[in-house]
Amino acid sequence: MNSASSRARTLKTVGALGMAAATAVLMTGCGQSPDSATSAATSEAAKVVPQKQTTSPSASARLTEDQQERKKVLDATKVTFDDAATTATGEVAGGKLVDLDLEGVDDDDQDQSPSPTGSGSPTGSASPTGSASPTGSASPTGSASPSGTGSPSASPGSEGPIWVAEVAEKDGTVHTVRINAVDGKVIEARVDADQDADDKKQTADRLAQATQTPQQAAKVATEKKKGTVTSVGLDDNDGKGVVWQVDVVGSDWKKTTFDVDAKTDTIVREETDND
Length: 275
Fold this sequence. Notes:
- By secondary structure, the protein is α+β, with helices and mostly antiparallel strands.
- It has seven helices and eight strands; from the N terminus they run H-H-H-H-E-H-E-E-E-H-H-E-E-E-E.
- It has helices at residues 2-31, 34-48, 65-76, 81-89, 107-111, 197-209, 214-224, and strands at 96-102, 162-168, 174-180, 186-191, 228-236, 242-249, 255-261, 267-273.
- It has an eight-stranded antiparallel beta sheet.
- The radius of gyration is 40 Å and the shape is globular.
- The termini are far apart.
């Protein structure tokens, strides 16, 4: 009996120990319940959630002041260079175009009349589009005062953007013709009062050397860079003949200036203004 009783007590003890072990295992398993695992995973994921990215527009995407000015004037311009040239020359019997400039587009830059040296690569493509109204501008390059005593209007004003042309007679006498760039009407046409004999001779000599027309030069320039012609002027090529200096504004509102040989229609210089 004693021996059996001892064995029974031993078995009870082993059973109790087994139950305790099973309970411990069960509790451990409960500690890794799906809810706990999900909570732990969520906690870990929270540590690696990327911060929200906030980016501001690139500085290169913003238009410079010059580009904004070009856009405003060109968006309001309805009369093309070709049409303005035809209108201007029609105001002077037998006249030839010497200079045609869209007032308000980089007039200050053109006043510097850079020499046709060096080169730069043109940029941009397609003609500008959009809509806006023009704002202030400086006086056009190479054109005389449209009034007897004053200088040209500093801005297109209420009449809108203006094409300012210089058209020369055979003897070199230059006439200034101002054309509304919205409706194409002539605002003013008059003989420049500030010319002397030397000025007239220089103009006549340059025109005699220019066997290619300004329209042909504009075509050459726009074939190289798609865009809108804003200025064409006859200029000296450092004593190596004459060139048509053509300004073209592309869809990026940057201006490229081309010097096109007035005899051969070849580009001898090009430079892009990135401002």
